[in-house]
């Protein structure tokens, strides 16, 4: 498994497809060798995108991470919401969990 330790050839392809499904949003391109979080990439600049359906605030969606009254507890049970990954602990960056499988060229929901 590649995960955050580094990337295998053609790893994490589905999560790196453009445009983002159901939108016209193009991801930043992430070469196979840069998928893994342990690979240094100072110029990584993912596109910010959250689907309109999520921004509408349906019951199943969390509020925006920037909302002052919302501070989720990742890597543990948070009220009735399980915020643990089956792929190990989330690394938190700017208040958001990083995808444990690596870079996707997109941040948001």
Automatic annotation (TrEMBL):
Comp. bias regions, Basic and acidic residues: 74-85
Residue intervals passing through the bilayer: none
InterPro entries: NUDIX_hydrolase-like_dom_sf, NUDT9
Protein's name in the database: Nudix hydrolase 9
GO MF annotation list: ADP-ribose diphosphatase activity
One Pfam family linked to the record: NUDT9_N
Region Disordered, residue ranges: 1-30, 64-109
Gene: Nudt9
Superkingdom of the organism of origin: Eukaryota
């Amino acid at each position: 498994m590649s995960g955050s330790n580094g990337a295998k050839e053609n790893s994490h392809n589905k999560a790196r497809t453009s445009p983002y499904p159901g939108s016209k949003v193009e991801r930043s391109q992430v070469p196979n060798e840069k998928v893994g979080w342990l690979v240094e990439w100072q110029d990584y600049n993912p596109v910010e995108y959250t689907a309109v359906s999520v921004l509408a605030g349906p019951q199943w969606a969390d509020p925006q991470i920037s909302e002052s009254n919302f501070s989720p507890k990742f890597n543990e049970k948070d009220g009735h919401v399980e915020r643990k990954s089956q792929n190990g602990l989330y690394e938190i960056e700017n208040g958001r969990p990083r995808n444990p499988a690596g870079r996707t060229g997109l941040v948001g929901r």
